[in-house]
Give the backbone structure.
Amino acid sequence: MRDVPPTTVILDNGGHNLKIGTLESDEPKIIPNSIVKAKHEKKRVFVGHQQNDCTEKFSLFYVRPIERGYVVNWDTQQQIWEKTFDHLDIEPTTSRIALTDNNYLVPALPDVSSEILFEYFGFQEIHKATASGFVAEHAARIRKRSCVCVVDSGFSWTTVASFVDGILIQESVIRIDVGGKALTNKMKDWISYRQLNVSEETHVINECKEDVCFVTMDFDRSMEEIRKRFKTIEKRYLMPDFQSSFRGQVQNIQDPQPADIPSIVLGVERFAVPEILFNPSDIDIDQCGVAEAVIESISSSPEPLRPALAQNIIVIGGSSQFPGFRERLAHDVRSMLPSEFGCRVADDVANAETHAWNCAQGVLREERVPWIDRKEWDERGESIEFSKFFRTTISSAELKETRNFEEPKEQKEEEEF
Amino acid sequence: MFLPPRKNVTTASQLRASTRISNLEGNRTLDESARRNRRTRQLDGLEQDNFHDDPHANITWNKAAPKFQDEMIGGSKKAKKNKDDKPGHTVHGDKARRRKLARPEFNKQRFKKTFNVHVTEQSKAILTSSDPDFRRVNAYFLATAPPSNKPARKFCAVCGKTSNYCCTKCGARYCGIHCRDVHNDTRCMKWLA
């Protein structure tokens, strides 16, 4: 039917950055998954990779396609994809695409991406999975470790999911509503109240968060150091002016403060911001932290698998890149596991942000994944996608008795006011 | 497996809610539900992308282009001509405006619906379909992380250090006299996002 085999495009569609490349590329291209409007430049908007052309990143206005991990704004997403494919010289009609979509981890919204990929772009074939799913597949097929617990701490949420042989154990999926966006917003909120109004500077504070924040091994001790004013934790962050400096600079608090550069001093924020991932209750979110979620996920998996899952915890996602994240997670999980269990958090993840993409590439090189083409999709639509790509240990029929629809709690609360 | 069963914990403030105390504090004290609403609103703010207005919201792309207040007769012909001259601007200028004019109700609707409402509707839609995939029903809410086993720690809303006191009016935490004064002057009973 086809003369030339299609190019395989791998697209990890993240909330903050999309990671894209072909089967042959060494590294994925990281492209912001947003459209940006700048105050100084009123003649144009910056779509995806064009944000490199935007020199003054003050008061950027973001239009994002993804909310809470799911694409909700398809117009925006389509524009960004189009610009990205153009930029990377990807010709959709001679390609097939492997896309990450969180509906295949936690089904929530109707999946309309196929419609856009087939009808608007004209891809030949589609494969869909989740970032965590690709990591699990990779672990099962290439590393030959069938049980894996994947922690994905991304921009819009944090999920913990256990897999066996690359198949999802659906009851073990735990979703925490804290991700990089919430952390940046909270940090902005704190700095704006305590020092300098930065509520419009999402971009600068996001970089500041990446540069100065760390996960402390002992929260109480760090807090004590702040309270006793030891000045061991405080750092000064010099804001960029986008004329001479394009990224803020971290400075020790003892160094002389440059007079003409606006700066902020970060003390308790340095470790309290990432701490929200481990204790969402610190900011009144009534959910457990990552470490407890790992325990919860492991303990809702079938009993014989539990020791193996605890032995193979893999951490991915941009928000797990805070220094000390993995060590702290290992420490906290260890303390809550039964003593006869081993506990190992994989430390061979070179770049947590692109790890899922690299795993996807590794899996696809094996060429054993299911693909659907236009014809199959025309015939059966969304249902074929879920039967092919959403592979769980429990089938739909087994759930029929137990899963009746209940009004979710969150909504009831909202109706009160 | 190895976790104790989760208990329904009554918060300290619920136990403390006596009528005498609330009478003393006058009507200005927020009750527990108002405080909770405030917290929810604040948490919703964490998912916001922007805290300022769209800088491109009020741009006039072409002086001759018809404005919202203009009448259709007369002005439209001239505008059409201009549009054809500069096709490059249509995407964010005239076209966007036209779309906005054509279906203002649609936009309103979309922003009214919260994410949770969308998810709930999808669950219902699947359940009522001919061959429902039960794995997709209510999965989003079932996956929500349970509350923590540990009691919540309290931090000063002003300086971020550990706090032992809480504002009698709005329930915000503070750590000492200084922070209390700052809180009363700036944030008590007014919410800055």
User: Anything to note?
Assistant: Chain B touches chain A through 68 residues (CB under 8 Å).
